[in-house]
Amino acid sequence: MKLLLKLVRKDFKANPVITTVLTVFLILSAILMAGGLRVAGTMFSSLDGLNERAIPPQYLQMNKGTYDESAFNNFVKSHDYIKDSLIVKMLDISNANIIYQGETLEKCLMDNGFVIQNKGFDLLLNMDNEVAVVGDGKIGVPVYYAQELGIAEGDVITLRKGNYSKNLTVSTIIRDSTMNSALTSSKRFLISQSDVDEISQHMGEWEECFEFLLKDGTSTSVLQKDYIDASMPSSGVAITGSLLTMMNALSYGLVAFIIIAISFLLVMIAILCLSYIIRATLAEENYTIGEMKAIGFPKSEIEKSYQIKYSILALVAAAIGYLVGIPFGNFFSASIIKYCGNGNDEWMKWVYPFVGLILFGLLVILRCRKIVRKNMKSTVVELMRGEERIKKEGHYTLPLAGLRHRNLTIAFGELKCKWKEYSVIFFVFVFSSFLILLPMNMKNTIENPSFITYMGIGECDIRIDMQYSEKLEKQKDSAISYLENDSQIKKYQIYKNGYVQLQNTKGEWEYLRVENGDESAFPLEYLEGRAPDENAPNGSKEMALSYLEASELGKKVGDSMTVNYQDKEILFNILGIYQDITYGGKTAKAAIDFDEKDVQVYIIYLDVNDGVNILEKTNEIRSILTDSKITPISEFISQTLGGIMDNMSLVKDAAIVISLLLITLITVMFLQLITAREHSAIAIKKAIGFSNKDIRMQFGIRILVIQFVAIVVGTVLANTLGESIFSLMLSSMGASKITMLVEPVTAYLISPMVQMLVVFITVIIGTKVVRNYHIRNQLME
């Protein structure tokens, strides 16, 4: 064993550059693996901890308008599968009446409700995940606003309408297991009972949340059907606990998914490089191995001498990866902890990376063992003669006409006959280009205004939302009257949203959100088929389903479906399937003439004329339609997906740094190996008249040509395979097919130039070693 360790130490000293580069590769892989798994462990722990202490409802039905509390209590008593229930009264206050640092919250997409602390479940927590308590004149602000607007304890929130004004001092930041995520369009502020009583006399509109906890094994669809059948109050959105969990997981888990995916790819690249290095090392040391076999060294001991080195590297990489992965994972987990806390099961963020790195180490060691054993099958004579190496050496023929462009001709000739040696560096260059472009293209896609079409909305300039209230019809009429007479409005279209009943695959009745309006005014890109036509021929009814709803129901274009509205069955032909990531991804579009009392929401999409400033027009409309929510569509996307976009920016920056480091390391390592293997050829070239500059240029041409082809391949993969990966990540939200939107100057010009410049500089530095190779050294050998 002592002799083996001595041989390993000697090998480390003999190849310090290659050993260092390989170690860095393995360490990078281990850090990303540990960091990604730490983010995942933190997310699971934090969500579990938040839900355990806050106890979110399993079913929530929002409602505006009058209701009979005794009827609700009787409903709860008559259904024994209901474990607990709660009526949460929210005082909805217009964003125009909420002021922070001199500005209203009109630019914010969120609907804001003011509540008192609940009892039993659905508790609002402070930043220590304890039940939040506020006194008179104090307010608890959602963590979303603390993150987005920088609201902190001690700041003052002012509520103002007309002559009435109320100052509330922020005493705590609150976590809300029900409305935490940016994907949830409502947020709750916590105030005292006396303050809410006072404020309600001057402003706001009451809205109720009817919340339920169910006994184990009870489906929320059973409760939903019984609730609607009993004519319980239901003039707002219904949300299930599973939908809340999904929105939270998507908000915080996307980064973990991307980092882990990158780490797996990097591990594969590291193992590919490892395989190449082992083969190159064994090929160089065939004679030494043959000597060891000839003098009686056992085959198993020779194998150990090579395996120990890489086992040590794998263990060192895993240890460093685990230690560095802690702050790396914590950095990307900061948003999760901010929104959800540290959680109760902190062991997850320690154990997940540990288990992952054990598997990482085993994978590397087993791969090394397999390669070494395969290369030990040669006989002593073959090893001593170097026959295996001779068989793999390529040759090329110089042109009879001579070398007009000698460096170019020699470089391409060597590249042609030795292309297998360049396969590893080619794949690393492909991966690096792919890794740079994928997060960059993802971010560009999400930030592009056309991304709105994946949210079930046609591309437009401004969106107007009118939520259910007793004056909803009056709001709608006022909006239409204004838009009709505004010469700066290019076009607009109003859409009604209501609910119908349908049977799922289990035979259970559930409710589906349906939008009714002219879908051709602001068209979507359909996955299959087309938009429903309000004036369909022969009186037939047409419907389009969102991707998730169609998948859950097992429906496709051409099928028919029966829905129930106002106790009447209506048969629809399914003409199209579209993507939608709003309302849990389960919606439909159809020509259903909803009664005014059944309309939950009116939404107006509009375009302004060319040259009209969208933000200025938005502010003008806000000043006129004060009871409606007016949002530029760019803000709608950024606020809905803001947290995801911020995380994508971090991942994009990290991916660029990692990729540039990768191509630098692989180029250094490859030049070290290839110049060592070709030292005889370099010396001969010098002897026949090639200068150091010529030889270095030939190496540069070879590597830069490989890189150029790799960048082209990586770019194609980022636009094809990248789309599939992005679609996979968003498919659970309801978008199964994303068209990647590329910023061409950055993706096709700046990014390739930066990568090639990094390699060019590395080649200049790395090929200086050719000065040390001379023909006299070869003659002496």
UniProtKB/TrEMBL annotation:
GO terms for cellular component: plasma membrane. The chain crosses the membrane at residues 12-37, 252-278, 310-330, 350-368, 422-440, 654-676, 703-726, 746-770. It is a multi-pass membrane protein. Keywords: Cell membrane, Membrane, Transmembrane, Transmembrane helix. The keyword Hydrolase does not apply. The keyword Coiled coil does not apply. It holds the Pfam family FtsX. It is found in: Cell membrane. Its main location: membrane. Residues 261-366, 655-770 form the ABC3 transporter permease C-terminal domain. This is Putative ABC transport system permease protein. It comes from [Clostridium] fimetarium.
